[in-house]
Amino acid sequence: MNDVRTIVLGIGNPLLQDDRAGLEVARRVFELGLSVDTQELYTVGFEVMDRLMSYDRAFIVDACRLGNKPGTVMEVRIEDIFSSKSLASSHAITLGATLKTAYQLFPDEMPGELRIFLIEVERIDEFTDIMSPCVDQAVQQAVDIISATISPVPVSHTGGKNLTAC
User: Fold this and answer.
1) Helical (H) or strand (E) element with 136
2) According to the 3-state scheme, what is the secondary structure of 33-102?
3) pTM for this prediction
4) Which UniProt keywords apply (predicted)?
5) 28, 47, 115, 128 - which has most CB atoms within 10 Å?
6) What is the C-alpha separation between 82 and 85, in angstroms, rounded?
7) 39-53, 84-98, 119-133: which has the highest mean pLDDT?
């Protein structure tokens, strides 16, 4: 499995409280020292496409506001985020539209395995680098899920595999 080129792409705004969740997941995965590339993006535009090309497997993590309990971790498919009006964002183009376009234009260059995780935010209106406690726990939960997939040996443990909020 070591020859599988893998990327963890965290998306968010580093200046807004819980919107930084995706970025924090990428940073924590990087700190684990796994054989995986990690990158941070502050937009969901076509840069996402550029970052994912040539990888075999990709994990994308972003914050969302869908009305779930804050700290809920959801795994979604491209079709889910492409067709859902509630997943439209303040970004210039939605993540779903970017990914759908990428797979239509460059199917052989995009990852064969793509997992998308969304973390429900509590607050995104405050400029701070400290996340809400529930979102911080959800970030670690996402890190644990991703690292367990990448590494056959557990590198972190926070408890069960429940994908619900605290």
Assistant:
1) helix 133-150
2) CCCCEEEEECCCCCHHHHHHCCCCEEEEEEEECCCCCCCCEEEECHHHHHHCHHHCCCCCCCHHHHHHHH
3) 0.83
4) Aspartyl protease, Hydrolase, Protease
5) 28
6) 8
7) 119-133
